[in-house]
């Protein structure tokens, strides 16, 4: 790791970092049930208390922060850390997509279902250049069964939601290729990265089915006991996936080649975002340690729509 700086500690399972133009980082604390702003001097400011389980964050075209709310996790101790893994808790409130005014902390719930299908555990999200919002739904796990996951698209204007693809196994991280012709989705337990070709904004292109109705193409999978979490994309098109258990960021080329795995020192490495000069600083959430760190990155990140302009 190159020039690692610890920016914040004592965070309660941080996720969804968003590097703001002023150098601060907005992130969610899933276990803390809040949206927090970390200032460059290390000061932490609570933007909003969010019931359920705020799980991912992104800045929209209106300058507000959009949140994936998983509805609440069950938590278990694991080798000195507290991590999600217990069955769906009694206080689970259902999944939703929410919007938070960063100036006032006001929270709005925009969607809690697609057609007649309730959202179970929204996880990660990304805006396209048109103002549409892609997001994954991990689903929920219970004592002896679990949901089949999906990802969705909210059309520009935030009035209509459509299904991208259903039938995935715990879809987690989501991102767009630089030309926005491909949406990438990472499955957690399989450590598999999928690519879905788009025919138009919000529309997954039909393709020949590989086996059981898949609409995407698996471009990479890791061996051993590793799991994928959230992701970010480099300007080159490489996909950087936070990788659990092995504790690293896996960098995967669009053709599926594993470019490198950058160790982080925390087996609960959950997300990555880019900021700083030329977007060559990686901001990474170490959820086991409860830290937000920054480190020099070998290649620039992809500018995010409505943020890194």
Structural class: mainly beta
SSE ordering = EEEEEEEEEEEEEEEEEEEEEEEEEEEEE
Number of helical stretches of at least 4 residues = 0
Question: What's the count of strands?
Answer: 29
What does this structure look like?
This protein has strands at 5-8, 14-19, 25-29, 34-38, 44-49, 54-59, 65-69, 74-78, 81-86, 96-100, 107-111, 113-114, 117-118, 122-127, 133-137, 149-154, 161-168, 171-176, 182-187, 192-200, 203-204, 217-221, 227-233, 239-244, 248-252, 258-263, 269-275, 281-286, 291-296. By secondary structure, the chain is mainly β. The strands form eight sheets. Strands 18, 19, 20, 21 and 22 form a five-stranded antiparallel β-sheet that branches. A hairpin with a 5-residue loop joins strand 4 (34-38) and strand 5 (44-49). The mean pLDDT is 95.
Write the layout of secondary structure elements.
Elements: E1 5-8, E2 14-19, E3 25-29, E4 34-38, E5 44-49, E6 54-59, E7 65-69, E8 74-78, E9 81-86, E10 96-100, E11 107-111, E12 113-114, E13 117-118, E14 122-127, E15 133-137, E16 149-154, E17 161-168, E18 171-176, E19 182-187, E20 192-200, E21 203-204, E22 217-221, E23 227-233, E24 239-244, E25 248-252, E26 258-263, E27 269-275, E28 281-286, E29 291-296
Antiparallel strand pairs: 1-29, 2-3, 3-4, 4-5, 6-7, 7-10, 8-9, 10-11, 12-13, 14-15, 15-16, 16-17, 18-19, 19-20, 20-21, 20-22, 23-24, 24-25, 25-26, 27-28, 28-29
């Amino acid at each position: 790791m190159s020039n690692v700086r610890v920016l914040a500690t004592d965070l309660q399972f941080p996720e969804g970092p968003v590097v703001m133009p002023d150098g601060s980082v907005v992130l969610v604390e899933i276990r803390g049930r809040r949206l927090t702003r970390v200032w460059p001097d290390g000061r932490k400011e609570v933007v909003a208390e969010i019931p359920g389980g705020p799980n991912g964050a992104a800045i929209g075209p209106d300058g507000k922060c959009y949140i994936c709310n998983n509805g609440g996790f069950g938590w278990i101790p694991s080798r000195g850390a507290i991590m999600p893994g217990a069955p769906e808790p009694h206080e689970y409130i259902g999944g939703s997509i929410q919007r938070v005014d960063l100036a006032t902390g006001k929270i709005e719930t925009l969607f809690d279902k697609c057609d007649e299908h309730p959202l179970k555990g929204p996880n990660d999200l990304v805006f396209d250049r048109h103002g549409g919002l892609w997001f994954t739904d991990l689903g929920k796990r219970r004592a002896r069964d679990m949901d089949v996951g999906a990802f969705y698209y909210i059309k520009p204007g935030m009035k209509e939601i459509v299904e991208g693809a259903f039938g995935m196994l715990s879809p987690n991280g989501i991102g767009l290729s630089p030309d926005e012709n491909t949406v990438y989705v990472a499955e957690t337990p399989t450590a598999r990265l999928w690519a879905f070709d788009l025919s138009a904004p919000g529309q997954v292109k039909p393709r020949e089915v590989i086996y059981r109705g898949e609409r995407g193409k698996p471009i990479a999978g890791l061996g051993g006991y590793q799991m994928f979490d959230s992701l970010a994309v480099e300007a080159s098109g490489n996909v950087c996936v936070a990788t659990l258990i092995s504790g690293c960021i896996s960098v995967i080329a669009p053709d599926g080649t594993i470019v490198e795995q950058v160790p982080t020192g925390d087996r609960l490495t959950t997300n990555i975002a880019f900021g700083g000069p030329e977007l060559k600083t990686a901001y990474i959430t170490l959820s086991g340690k409860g830290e937000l760190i920054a480190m020099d990155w070998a290649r620039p990140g992809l500018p995010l729509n409505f943020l890194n302009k």
